[in-house]
What we know:
By secondary structure, the protein is an all-alpha fold. 80% of the residues lie in helices and 0% in strands. It is built from 1 helix and no strands. The longest helix is centred in the middle third of the chain and has 41 residues.
Amino acid sequence: MCNELTVQSKSEWTDECMTADYHMIIAVTRSFLDLVDMISQLAEHTKNKHN
């Protein structure tokens, strides 16, 4: 993804890495939020079943 061999200039290399990290952080955050949402729905469902 971002290694010094594929990219000529140092600034370009930094941009590549930062962009990759940025996209990864967004992806991880999205999955985390989906997980939280799923857990809260599950908790709601379980609570409703007990009542």
